[in-house]
Amino acid sequence: MSTAELNSSQRKSKYISMYETVTALEDQNASNQECLDVTHKVVKEAKQLVQEGGVDHRSKHPGEGLLDARVLHASSNLAKMCLETVDVNMHLYDKNQLAQHIKNKPDFWDFTYPLEVPAVSYLYGAGTLQVSLPSSTRSSQSRSRVVVQHAQMRVPKNVDKVQQIENGPELVSRVDHFIKKQYKLNGRRPLSYYSVVLDPDSFSKTVENIYYVSFLVHDGLVAVELDETYGLPFISPREAPRDNDGALHDNQMIMSIDMKMWKELIEVFQISKPLMVIKRL
């Protein structure tokens, strides 16, 4: 065996030894300082091995380049692991170093009894830091705050009220139109209540649909009937009934639903998309 081949074999052995050293530190959970020292030493030795071999030698022995890359990769992973464990708020505190310090110098630490701050019996509460103001100043400031808060709250309430007045009847009318249209498409047969109001994509829209349908039931524009077999509700459009004196009938429909019931109904009725899609204003 030639001298070049012996040198190559020795260089590969050094690379393997360096790689095993780095990987062993990862498994041993060593301290950050020890990991950094070993990483610095390994990178320095790998650099020297690269400088010793020329271009011709590296081209003849590509295995050394592979081992060099594996050593550098393992070293970079070890350095990254050390950096991730460093906490800037700990001021270079290392729990492993502290444990080693306690082990080497047991007389330096004294845990014979815990040190406690003596209780202060005459202090029962924190003193106030507010500066007392004259009563006239406090009353004027409180009145000013009330006036400002009242002025800030007044406009949003009016806007919400106007929007509710304008949007409410319009949406109820759209729901009524949809039910009448769907009733005709269904051969003038009653519609499944849950198929109409359930929205599988939105629980809030389902609640809104129930809310608007209840208005139509209250006004007598929609009739609710229970299926004789399963007792499920079905709805159909109706003309608003009147008594002999011209007064409207007062109908009520009380329907409650929660998130759990909403999910169960969607699964039972196998609803994949909403039947009633009303564009909100």
UniProtKB/TrEMBL annotation:
The keyword RNA-binding does not apply. Keywords: DNA damage, DNA recombination, DNA repair, Nucleus. Its main location: nucleus. Residues 191-276 form the Non-structural maintenance of chromosome element 4 C-terminal domain. GO terms for biological process: DNA recombination; DNA repair. The keyword DNA damage applies. It comes from the Eukaryota. InterPro entries: Nse4/EID, Nse4_C. Component of the SMC5-SMC6 complex, that promotes sister chromatid alignment after DNA damage and facilitates double-stranded DNA breaks (DSBs) repair via homologous recombination between sister chromatids. Belongs to the NSE4 family. Component of the SMC5-SMC6 complex. This is Non-structural maintenance of chromosomes element 4. It comes from Bombyx mori.
